[in-house]
Fold these 2 entries.
Entry 1:
Amino acid sequence: MTNLEKYKKAFLESLEVSEDQLEGLEYQKIESWDSVGHMNLVAALEEAFDIMMDTDDIIDLSSYEKGKEIMRKYDIEL
Amino acid sequence: MISSCDLLKNKVCLVTGASRGIGYAVAKRFAACGAAVYANGRREESLKELLSLNGNCSGSVIPLYFDVTDSAAAKKAMMQIKKEQGKLDVLVNNAGIMKDALIGMISKEDMHQVFEVNVFAVMDMLQLAVKLMSRQNSGSIINLASIVGTNGNRGQMVYSASKGAVISLTKTAAKELASRHIRVNAVAPGVIDTDMFRSIGEEKMKEKINLIGMNRAGTPEEVADTCIYLASDLSVYVTGQVIGVDGCEVI
Ligand SMILES: NC(=O)c1ccc[n+]([C@@H]2O[C@H](COP(=O)([O-])OP(=O)(O)OC[C@H]3O[C@@H](n4cnc5c(N)ncnc54)[C@H](OP(=O)(O)O)[C@@H]3O)[C@@H](O)[C@H]2O)c1
């Protein structure tokens, strides 16, 4: 699985969205991406890439696109 | 006092401030009860005695050197546990400092220092531990509070406030984490015979002991035994509690 596939899978499974919803997806714009969904998403990303995200990055993870930027900080090329 | 048992067999535990006092006793007792104990110390030589237990107990002691106020180092330590064990069952937030001064003579620096170690680092460690514990949907977090955190004490405005914070954060975390089966409890010792207690001087030590129903200071091992209970599956339905270990001290 490529890093991008892993990244997408984390969103698909933790937020229960479909692939066509990913582009432009933002925190708290859909019901499943509430604070609980957010923590599930963080856990899924951490599991997928074997990282521990800093609290500041967890707070900054405001959209599907922003998340990609944050992943780069952990040397994950998408 | 339990000298050995298998209550913590296969459990992976992290104990902060394990170089001496209560933390040392907790790490030692946990290892005697079969746990893999990650013992935190600040200096390399400081865990020598604990490490000599390896081979002489049913569990094991693994050193982790970091200052609990250093978030990056704490995160690295947690990553190491994840890599080596794949889980964390128990976190004991024991590292703590005490700086006493009467009102009017308390420096801002002391306030910051005490809260950095006794409160902020505890919340930091808790957040990191929860990352691992959430995956396994279980865990026990034990925070060292103090009887002065509920009762207050002359000359201890900062320290007592920091321990009061430990009690309230324990209760909040317990509520938030119960659905994930992560238990959070506090142990509130009274007077325990460690360097911290001895630092107040002989006269004050006597005064303090006079306030204790059992008329003696407790031992670090007596606090450790309560921690064994909270770490083990004997307490699976116990969370959000503050357990006094104080020989009936009255403040
Ligand atoms: N003794 C009592 O009567 C009593 C009563 C109520 C509550 N408590 C609480 O019980 C806990 C343990 O107390 P104690 O009596 O065992 O104290 P202690 O004998 O003074 O030992 C304190 C431990 O914490 C460690 N520590 C301090 N700052 C640290 C930091 N920034 N990073 C990592 N480790 C650090 C020390 O490491 P170093 O060796 O490197 O300094 C030492 O291992 C504390 O939270 C205390 O507030 C104690």
Entry 2:
Amino acid sequence: MQREMTGAEMVLQALKDNGVEHVFGYPGGAVLPIYDELIQQDSIQHILVRHEQGAGHAAEGYARSTGKAGVALVTSGPGATNMVTALTDAMLDSIPMVCITGQVPTNLVGSDAFQECDTVGITRPCTKHNWLVKDVNDLPRILHEAFYVAQSGRPGPVVVDIPKDVQFATGTYDGPQANPSNHKSYRPQLKGDMNAIRAAVELMSKAKRPVFYTGGGVINSGAAASQLLRELVDLTGFPITSTLMGLGAYPASGEQWLGMLGMHGTYEPTWRCTTVI
Amino acid sequence: MICIGARFDDRITGRLDAFSPNSTKIHVDIDPSSINKIVHVDLPIVGDVAHVLEDMVRIWRASSFHSQPELKGWQTQIAKWRARDCLSYRHSDDVIMPQYALQRLNEAIKGRKDVYISTEVGQHQMWAAQYLGFESPNHWLTSGGFGTMGYGLPAAIGAQVAHPGALCINVAGDASILMNIQEMSTAVQHGLAPKTFILNNSYMGMVRQWQQLLHGNRLSHSYTDSLPDFVKLAEAYGAKGIRVTKPGELDDAIQEMIESPEPVLFDCCVAQLTNCFPMIPSGKAHNEMLLPDEATDEAVANAIDTAGKSLV
Ligand SMILES: Cc1ncc(C[n+]2csc(CCOP(=O)(O)OP(=O)(O)O)c2C)c(N)n1
């Protein structure tokens, strides 16, 4: 379904096509074209925060409690720098988040324009990936790619930086790929090596003092992962502990639950970890 | 040790050379760069946790594997370790102990499936992890890797947007909540009703605890002299404020918070100088953990040696 539209319209269309229902954001000069589109539709609800960091953490809470990517929309310069803490937070906890930032028009980039900052430079170390969009015809592909990268493999935050002239420009919109995992270079491995898995299960069957040490990766892998973890714990009868990030994957009331691991973890599992053969 | 979707973070391992040094380690992770990054593992498996677990369950069943008979002895040993109550604390009838406040909160939300707990960062975060029971995934929202004060209130708002009918509670400290307190206004504007349960000790409690452990109890700039009146602050935002100072008032007040249709700032005034245990002091191994019943002032003052002081 190719259609001609402006960059700002593409942003809204791409959000809808990627299943987005809520956006957390804060307006400013460099994102006004996108805000103008937001108000003219009602399938996406915008939650107006009071500080961009709030938008970032709200998107994280949304993501963490649903398993879907959280979406934030902020303006250039201080809007973008106010997001840096939340992006880094999402990076360290592997939370899927798509952050759209406005940027000064392309002809002013690099001129110390009003509310200009090097958003892709500043956020490079605290995002899984980021893009500065220079041509409106690249925008749809980049937006779809942003959702794919944020949510696949080890999840994380991504930034799409869109100069204001690109938001006004008209180009051709294309929907997301039917199968985004056919990406040309990023294809995280989902299936484990069968020989290694067989060897692991055999090792487990021979273990005398085993312990499961689980983390946030179980939660990020989706509800099925937690269900399968419970099954494996029941089958083996092995005790299980978790990091702070992994709490809830195995129920606290479960028979094999040892309590939390770590600096303020409970006594039993931590002690055991040092003595396990 | 079967490590699944975890990354041997320093907050988990403590002193590395003492972290389960002799175990055979299996590590399942979707991120190849996390494998053998911190700890050498014997059997790495790169893949998605759900995919790998599915194969493990299938193979265990198909090959009719059984656990070793020694597992029984291991379980008995564990039961003995369990018998020691490592989360004990001295209860008081006059002042609210922070742990007690969370136990009462836990009692009030137990059995409900629609509860999402977020936290800020500090002692209250660790107590929440210790005293609230999490039964299912995606219901616990906390800033683990970065430790960002100011995370909890917006995170609770985000969860509330996704689950409008659910009970979203932010367990907070009096210092952390002020970092993004402005988001109360967001909640009110959008008709969202997250509850913030502040364990108010007037200190940056976790900082004070470290100063006691590492710096001769010189409490440099970790006390907040002029905290706002949280009840009035809630009202100023158009939300509800509740203050509790006595243990006996807790249950009714928690119920009032839960039943309130508006966002709430719950000012729970707790014992100010409580420390969070168990704790593995930095630079120490897991078996050198400080337990609540052993943590005398002297033990706390001497818990960390010179090398440990430079760690975080
Ligand atoms: C943004 C930020 N600044 C500083 C810190 C360092 N820090 C960690 S815990 C803490 C004190 C938190 O105090 P409070 O919110 O009152 O919680 P309590 O420990 O008393 O429960 C501080 C300052 C941090 N984690 N995040």
